[in-house]
């Protein structure tokens, strides 16, 4: 039996980045990101589905987005990819130490 992951803001921001941009410009594979955060592919898929809902999409979206997902979306959705990527890379480097 696996333990429940307690999502941090950095985890959710990373999921947001992957939702919007994928991992091509991140210099980390998605598998590496999942390992650093400590979640499964299914958990990441659900996190991305939170952002589908917040973006007004219905196909594949969760019915209710998480509170932290809403906060991250509101804070970062208007920022550029470069700005968000810098935050995510900084966060992931800290997980890598």
Structural class: mainly alpha
Q: Tally the beta strands.
A: 0
Number of helices: 5
Using only CA atoms, what is the Rg? 13 Å
Question: What is the structure about, briefly put?
Answer:
The chain contains five helices and no strands. By secondary structure, the chain is mainly alpha-helical. The radius of gyration is 13 Å and the shape is globular.
Textual characterization of the structure:
The protein is built from five helices and no strands. The protein has helices spanning 9-21, 30-37, 41-54, 67-76, 81-96. Helix 1 packs across helix 3 (41-54), helix 1 packs across helix 4 and helix 1 crosses helix 5. The protein is an all-alpha fold. The model has no long low-confidence stretch (mean pLDDT 87).
Give a topology summary.
Elements: H1 9-21, H2 30-37, H3 41-54, H4 67-76, H5 81-96
Question: What attributes characterize this protein structure?
Answer:
single chain; 97 residues; mainly alpha; 5 helices; 63% helix; globular
């Amino acid at each position: 039996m696996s333990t429940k992951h307690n999502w941090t803001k950095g985890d959710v921001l990373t999921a947001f980045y992957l939702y919007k941009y994928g991992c091509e410009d991140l210099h980390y594979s998605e598998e590496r990101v999942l390992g650093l955060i400590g979640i499964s592919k299914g958990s990441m898929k659900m996190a991305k589905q939170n952002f589908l809902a917040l973006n007004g999409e219905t196909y594949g979206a969760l019915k209710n987005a998480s509170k932290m997902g809403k906060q991250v979306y509101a804070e970062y959705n208007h920022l550029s990819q470069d700005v968000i990527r810098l935050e995510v890379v900084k966060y992931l480097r800290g997980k890598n130490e």
